[in-house]
Request: fold
Amino acid sequence: MVRHIILLWLRNNSEKNIRDACDRLRLLTDEIDGLLWVEAEAGQNRSDQSCDICLNMVFDSWASLSAYRSHPESVLALEQIHAIRSKTVTADFAVREPVRNMPRLFGTFGPSFTHAHMIENLVDAGMTGMWLSLSHRSLTESTAWIEAFKAAAKRLTLKPELIIAPEDLSQISSIPEHLGATHVAVSLPAGKREQRAIRDSIGAGVQLLAIVRVLRDFETLPAILSASDGIVIMRDYVSRDILRHHLPMLQARAAQAANIREKPFIVASELLASMREKPVPSAAELSDIHQAVSQGASGLLLIRETAIGKFPKLAMETLRKAAKAAVGDAAAQPTFSLDITETSWR
Reply:
């Protein structure tokens, strides 16, 4: 996709002239093939440096943008706007979208694992990593589970990923290297000294994931991303701190922040909540998984669905199929480019 932005200054920038011009520009949406979106709004900062109108257009390709310039409806709009404008600045650039790679699929150790073959079933269903929370079970109690997971992964020639989430920061240094932990996930403290201490306490080659779980974490995302190797968006915890209807917006912001900094992020919890009790997911849950993959999630984490759910294998199979469908055959994204000219708006 391509974004075409036009900043307009009018000779007579009365509210009526601005409003009429915006209304005329919005009519372009349904008239031009390949034009996906038109947004024409009046500038709110009324100063000499601020434009009177910002026109934001999204095309499906560079070819559509080129064709738009000579389209009869565009030419007519050009004539009308040129008659009243004093200056125009344009910017054309390819929209940077997250690359849709197949995310890593994580399950959570829990009471549903009464036998080692249950972990093998999850690996066969598509699971590539496991999450172990030390809030509910110690490392000693979990050793057999971890070994079963590593053996199942070896059988399928997979590189197993083990994320250990300690109950408190003092447990980090006691995680033995032979367990094969690939990540340690914690809620990072605000202080840089404390963050460095955490980094120094984890083993060599182990990545540090920051758990984003309360509103404060979202407000300090740049600092959290700088101090960690990636983030885990723990949505069930977030919903206790804020109204649930804000979650999609916060997840989108976190995904964008991680993508800009090229840091991986995992979307965790409530992906297939209904499958704790039922063998069939809801359409909304499948859409949720698709959205997470579209945002560029590097990993998807099932928690209660595999830890205490009635259908852990089926839930993992559903997660794999939904993620694979979301990835589809998406082509490589175009590289970012920007061209700004202060000539005509064409």
